[in-house]
Specification:
Strand content of chain B: under 5%
Low-confidence stretches of chain B: none
Low-confidence stretches of chain A: none
Strand content of chain A: under 5%
Structural class of chain A: mainly alpha
Radius of gyration of chain A: 19 Å
Number of helices of chain B: 4
Mean pLDDT of chain B: 91
Distance between the termini of chain A: 29 Å
Largest interface: A-B, 50 and 49 residues
Mean pLDDT of chain A: 88
Radius of gyration of chain B: 17 Å
Number of strands of chain B: 0
Helix content of chain A: over 70%
Oligomer: heterodimer
Structural class of chain B: mainly alpha
Largest sheet of chain A: none
Shape of chain B: elongated
Shape of chain A: elongated
Chain lengths: ~170, ~140
């Protein structure tokens, strides 16, 4: 990738694509929840304040940034039309599977540990975490595939725009 | 708790100031020989701020309570969310174009100026929608 220098160990491409995926995923979720009327019943979440919300979002953002750094480590998103996107998509799905597992499993674990104080059995905490890891992996794989396609599509769109600009200048 | 909600709203408003002001400054500077690194700097600012905008936006909805989708306020919120989603997709494309131009060492000041002009106008539309949401 040529978009050096790095900041916080991340290239701009990695930071931008990871943040785009998180923000677009969040916006589509909020839009769908609002349009269906479900958001009115969900927000505000009882017993879940602003600070936990910010921490949960920060946790997801950090996970996606780390995963995206690994996904784009080989060649980034540049010149995707010159190579098969299958390997990139496979890495995207693998990265998102890990993100989903760590995110939902992590939330299940923290929620379970908090619940220990109100009498939840340790076995229930372990099961909650396990279901979170497995469910998060499945959900993450699906989301990773969809956003992998979107990201590759955007990269190809950007290449097409830049090619067109180069053609105009050469004429 | 009220102080925390005020802080969240303040971060949301200041984030919009950074996005809109940054794109307007980048557009204007590109008209008068801006350094080639300026668009890249704006893109770093943009995506860092967008993450904060999402979390503070959802925080605002949580604090105020989400409206029903059939109400007037709900309809404006639907329009704003749809517009912002489309804007974020367009912004990802803009960032990748900026990076590709940089990778190829291409100078396309006119194209970049148009991109940041369009970004500024789109952000002004978001501000207008937010004003309607806040004050009717």
């Amino acid at each position: 990738m040529a978009d050096r220098p790095l900041r916080f160990g991340l290239s701009l491409e990695t930071a931008a694509v990871a943040t785009f995926d998180v923000v677009a995923f969040g916006l589509v979720g909020v839009l769908a929840g609002h349009a269906s009327g479900a958001l009115r019943d969900l927000l505000p979440v009882p017993g879940f304040g602003t600070v936990p919300g910010i921490l949960v979002f920060g946790y997801l953002w950090a996970l996606v940034l780390l995963a995206m750094r690994w996904v784009l480590a080989e060649d980034g998103l540049s010149r995707t039309e010159d190579r098969s996107p299958v390997r990139l998509l496979a890495r995207g799905v693998a990265g998102a599977t890990l993100v989903g597992s760590a995110f939902v499993g992590g939330l299940g674990l923290v929620g379970g540990l908090v619940g220990l104080r109100s009498g939840i059995e340790p076995l229930s905490v372990a099961l909650l975490t396990l279901f979170g890891v497995v469910g998060g992996a499945l959900g993450g794989a699906l989301v990773g595939f969809v956003f992998g396609l979107v990201d590759v599509g955007l990269a190809r769109g950007a290449d097409a725009v830049v090619d067109r600009l180069a053609d105009r200048r050469s004429r | 708790m009220a102080v925390l909600h005020l802080l969240v709203r303040t971060v949301h408003v200041l984030g919009m100031v950074a996005l809109l002001g940054g794109s307007a400054v980048t557009w204007y500077a590109l008209r008068s020989g801006a350094p080639p690194s300026l668009p890249v700097r704006y893109e770093w600012l943009f995506w860092g701020t967008m993450g904060a905008m999402l979390v503070t936006g959802v925080g605002n909805l949580g604090a105020l309570g989400a409206p029903g989708p059939g109400t007037r306020w709900g309809t404006v919120l639907t329009v704003k969310l749809a517009f912002v989603t489309a804007f974020v997709v367009g912004s990802a494309l803009r960032t990748l174009v900026v990076l590709r131009l940089r990778e190829r060492g291409a100078i396309a000041t006119d194209a970049l100026r148009r991109l940041y002009g369009a970004t500024t106008l789109a952000l002004l539309v978001v501000v207008l929608l937010a004003e309607v949401l806040a004050h009717g």
